[in-house]
Design brief:
heterodimer, A: about 475 residues, Urease, subunit C, domain 1, 2 domains, six-stranded mixed sheet, 12 helices, about 30% helix, about 20% strand, disordered C terminus, B: about 550 residues, TIM Barrel, Lipocalin, eight-stranded mixed sheet, 13 helices
Chain lengths: ~475, ~550
């Protein structure tokens, strides 16, 4: 999160922008009714005639993509539709891989932060996903097919993430990206030390209050996790030796940290300043684990070589800056500079609204820093896929990968292009034409429901009754 | 001497009260009535006999005992007493006290083996039956609606406590209890909040808390088992009431009732229950019809709320509400019918409806929305008894069951039908004239309605609050604006010059429950505001006229 304070003027301004944009937006209701429920695994679809931006294998003019059982079965110029295949004409259109947003907070019920404690590795986004959040549909309509849903940045060690596919209309469980490596949110700097927020009346100031304290909290937590791991090893040893022993208490806070130490869980660390980025790299190396991604990482250009040497990715903004002190040194060249130093870089949204136009965020990296078209597209496709360790499944248009595809009316890096269709696992989840066609009908339904309610009220429904026991 | 006699008289009174019959015969026969037995065929014209609170005979040609008081049931219908399978009536209004149990996550700077702080709303050992009062207007209203049995449990909390099935009348609360404990109740409302406030302050924190507590209880049980098998060389487990109370639940001997409403909540609760192999029931389930696939597959019994969502009383008429909300309001009364069509078993509850009579009225709405009438009756009687584990003694008119009976002059779901008699434990219950027949009481003066400019005095300085309040009889609604944003009042009441209103405020990403309690004098209001997990502070302010 850039900023979670209720009083931050920046947050307020952006909130306003979001509201204004939102009100002009009329994706009132989903086309989920049309979203296919029956995933015939042997269904075959051919999309033909489009310019295909594979991201990893260059560009194919007048190309076709064959989809079979939700996977890309063939990509090229001369593919004929097998009998029974559904054919989608896309002449003049552009197709790119589904966009992957490496930092999102959509679809979370009941609070993005568990801010009561400094270490909340026991909480899981997966438990509270809300598959009916309209932002899922709106982001889908902007070409996003996969999102890394993260806990907020109030705590040095936050909650566990959930990587989802935006399968609008499905249940929370069905949205989870099968087999995606689990992760966790860390946060450094102003947010976890609470420097920009006045605590509500009567609340004691939560520890930590300084950057030193943030480091200490993380170090202490991993020290506990190491001890916890040893406790269990000791228990197993004694139990196997036939001793009468009581198992240690299972600690849901420490278990994910043990997984980090064992290399089984990805750390996504919210960080701004160069000194802090170096701090966390040193701490991680001391404990023998890796940071998977630095998030925001606005001063990453200052320490790009160190980030690359550690093997961390960087998931940053295109050109956002100065919304708080630790963001003053941001430059729009950040992404490109880090990429040139060998860091895997992605651009994320951190916002339900910005996620609808991540293609334009990627385009900015061509102006600032001179990335090539493919390099720019990689920022929102294959690179975040690598950062989330799902690049074997998504992130580019290659045979064998999931058919997560976006059809644009024009080149996706142009401001004039619009998303027309979005496929996930070969299924059509967003169709602009169908959406537009349904709006009048939905509006009619809405008016009818309103009218019915009003007439029920006039006739005196249950709540027209006088109160009992006055 | 006088005092001795007084004592004897008092004792005599108590004995007759306890037996409950005194001079009145303990035997009744209702003859020539239509009898809806529920579990057997409906008898068009028959007799029910009950003695000392137990049904002794039911049928078309049943001899009437000579000592029975006979009620002519011509033109009347006898139903088993109706159930409301979740209410907090008779329980203390204040939330249960904070329970102590281990399991909190120690702050990183705490010593290695900390004494864990207590957690709020975590008292599986709390028994509703122990805190019961069975008097008051609410009980009269509920009996007047034909409800003879309720499942009582507070509505808020996480590990809320254990419920009881009670009769809605009895000489003492103890005598009203039919079964206790019935189930452990778990809710998902965050109880803490704020940064540095009490854990859990978010919904995901609630899940973590439930999961960790159940894991702790598992280990607790395992530790005792190991210790009892062979204590030599083992550390002795520490007796912990809360974890002890969870053992029957973990063994699957006692069900958990999860309080859920939306489709997401339903699915989440099912996944959580399965993770710990719990025997469970879902209560609320307003959106159950959206989750029939999983409810049917897992054969989940439901206690379905008939408090159907409605357009808020003071809603902005120009507001453009999302279609999703409009649809839910239109579809909610169809929920029971759709659940029935899908083969899901359910009972009904009032879901906090403020008028007892709206309970049956709303069930009638469900009937109009397609629920077969006989299924609605079952959901009010035998299905409730079966799901709550009291079907051997309640829920139908059968020999040997408790004589809880409702007698009406017509179909239960007809607006014009009146309840003519009510028996609980075989004793006649005096029914107050039903609401609409009562001359309308003069409306209480509108004391509180208006816009109030309030100031909260906190240690960090003053916080300005604007409250738009609207009083309707003893209820208070409205909108409160503060630097933390705008919230609707979720619960509000007025009693004399005392006002009380509660709202949920989003403070730095976590929702905090804030309660204002104070006194109104003309256009001045003052009192204390309590923010859950943060403390209490004085507030005061005025209502500008004009």
């Amino acid at each position: 999160m850039r900023n979670i304070g209720a009083f931050s003027s920046v947050a307020r301004i952006w909130g306003l922008v979001v509201i204004l944009l939102g009100s002009g937006l009329s994706f009132t209701e989903p086309v989920s009714a049309q979203a296919p429920q029956s995933e015939a695994r042997d269904e075959v679809t051919l999309i033909r005639g489009a310019t295909i931006l594979t991201v990893t294998r260059g560009r194919i003019e007048n190309g076709s993509i064959l989809i079979r059982g939700g996977k890309i079965a063939a990509v090229g110029r001369n593919i004929t539709a097998p009998p029974g295949a559904k054919v989608i004409e896309a002449t003049g259109k552009y197709i790119m891989p589904g966009i992957i947003d490496c930092h999102s907070h959509i679809a979370i019920d009941g609070g993005v932060n568990e801010g009561t404690l400094a270490v909340t590795s026991m909480v899981r986004i997966e438990d509270v996903l809300n598959p009916t959040d309209i932002n899922i549909y709106r982001d889908l309509a902007g070409g996003v097919t996969t999102a890394n849903i993260l806990h907020g940045s109030a705590n040095p060690i936050g909650g566990l993430n959930a990587v989802i596919k935006l399968r609008w209309g499905k249940t929370a469980r069905e949205m989870l990206f099968e087999g995606a490596m689990p992760g966790i949110k860390f946060a450094l700097g102003e947010n976890p030390k609470r420097s920009n927020f006045t605590p509500p009346p009567g609340t004691p100031r939560r520890y930590p209050a300084t950057r030193l304290g943030v480091e200490y909290v993380i170090r202490e937590a991993f020290t506990q996790a190491r001890n916890y791991m040893r406790q269990w090893e000791e228990y197993e040893r004694r139990r196997k030796a036939g001793e009468n022993v009581v198992p240690p208490r299972r600690d849901l806070k420490l278990e994910p940290l043990v997984e980090i130490l064992q290399g089984k869980r990805l750390v996504h660390a919210h960080a701004y300043r160069a000194d802090e980025i170096l701090m966390l790299i040193r701490l991680a190396e001391e404990f023998g684990f890796k940071i998977a991604t630095f998030q925001h990482v606005l001063e990453g250009y200052k320490v790009a070589r160190e980030i690359a040497a550690h093997g961390a990715g960087a998931s940053t903004f295109s050109d956002w800056w100065a919304y708080k002190v630790e963001a003053y040194d941001a430059i729009p060249y950040n992404g490109a500079l880090m990429a040139r130093r060998g860091v895997i870089v992605s651009f994320n949204s951190d916002s339900a609204e910005l996620a609808r136009r991540l293609n334009l965020e990627a385009a900015k990296a061509m102006k600032y820093g001179g990335l090539s078209e493919d390099e720019a597209l990689a920022l929102i496709t294959i690179n975040p896929a690598k950062q989330l360790r799902i690049d074997h499944r998504v992130g580019s248009i290659e045979v064998g990968k999931d058919a997560d595809l976006v059809i644009y009316s024009g080149h996706p890096l142009s401001v004039y292009s619009i998303v027309e269709k979005v496929f996930i696992d070969g299924q059509l989840y967003f169709d602009r034409e169908a959406d537009l066609a349904r709006r009048a009908e939905l509006q009619k339904e809405k008016e009818a429901l309103k009218a019915r309610e009003r007439s029920d009220e006039r006739r005196g429904g249950p709540r027209g009754r006088p109160p009992e026991n006055p | 001497m006088l005092s001795l006699w007084g004592g004897v008289l008092l004792l005599g009174g108590m004995i007759s009260g306890r037996l409950g019959f005194g001079q009145t015969p303990a035997v009744y026969a209702i003859k020539d009535a239509r009898i809806v037995t529920v579990t057997g065929p409906t008898i068009p014209k028959g007799t029910v006999v009950f003695r000392d609170g137990i049904i002794t005979a039911v049928g078309e040609n049943v001899p009437i005992p000579p000592d029975a008081r006979v009620i002519d049931g011509s033109g009347l219908t006898v139903y088993p007493g109706l159930f409301d399978t979740q209410t907090d009536m008779g329980l203390p209004t204040a939330p249960p006290a904070v329970g102590a149990r281990p399991g909190a996550w120690a702050a990183p700077s705490a010593p290695a083996q900390p004494q864990p702080p207590p957690l709020p709303h975590t008292q599986p050992e709390w028994l509703a039956a122990r805190h019961l009062q069975i008097e008051g207007q609410r009980f009269e209203n509920v009996r007047g609606a034909g409800i003879t049995n309720v499942l009582v449990i507070p509505s808020r909390g996480i590990f809320i406590g254990q419920s009881a099935v009670i009769n809605t009348a009895g000489d003492t609360p103890q005598r009203a209890v039919v079964k206790s404990p019935v189930a452990l109740h778990i809710g998902f409302t965050p109880v803490g909040g704020g940064l540095g406030g009490r854990f859990p302050g978010s919904l995901m924190g609630v899940f973590a808390h439930i999961r960790q507590t159940l894991l702790d209880a598992q280990r607790y049980g395992q530790h005792w088992e190991l210790y009892q098998r062979d204590p030599r060389g083992l550390p002795r487990p520490e007796y912990t009431e809360s974890l002890e109370a969870l053992q029957p639940v973990l063994r699957g001997e006692r069900p958990v009732i999860f309080h859920v409403n939306s489709e997401s909540e339903i699915r989440r609760a099912i996944h959580l229950a399965e993770e710990f192999h719990l025997k469970f029931i879902l209560s609320g389930a307003i959106e159950g019809y959206k989750a029939v696939d999983i409810l049917r597959e897992k054969r989940v019994p439901l206690l379905v709320s008939v408090n159907f969502p409605e357009r808020p009383r003071d809603a902005d008429p120009e507001a453009d509400e999302p279609l999703r909300i409009l649809r839910l309001r239109a579809e909610a009364p169809q929920n029971p019918a759709r659940l029935h069509q899908a083969g899901v078993k359910f009972a009904f509850h009032s879901g906090g409806l403020s008028h007892a009579r709206d309970y049956i009225r709303n069930v009638a709405r469900a009937v109009r929305a397609g629920l077969p009438e006989d299924v609605a009756v079952r959901a009010l009687t035998i299905h409730a008894a079966e799901i709550l584990g009291v079907a051997e003694q309640l829920g139908s008119i059968e020999v040997g069951k408790i004589a809880n009976l409702v007698i009406t002059d017509g179909n239960l779901f007809d607006e014009r039908t009146r309840i003519t008699h009510l028996f609980i434990d075989g004793r006649p219950i005096e029914l107050r004239p039903s609401e609409p027949e009562r001359p309308s009481a003069p409306a209480p003066p509108i004391l509180v309605t208006g816009t109030w400019n309030l100031t909260v005095e906190s240690p960090q300085g003053t916080v300005p609050v604007t409250a738009h309040l609207r009083q309707e009889a003893d209820r208070l609604s409205g909108v409160v604006t503060s630097p933390f944003g705008q919230s609707n009042i979720s619960e509000g009441s007025v009693s004399g010059d005392q006002v009380r209103f509660t709202l949920s405020v989003e403070i730095q990403g976590t929702s905090v429950l804030v309660t204002f309690a104070g006194r109104v004098e003309g256009d001045r209001m003052s009192g204390m505001v309590t923010a859950e997990g943060m403390g209490s502070f004085p507030f005061s302010g005025t209502r500008p006229r004009g």
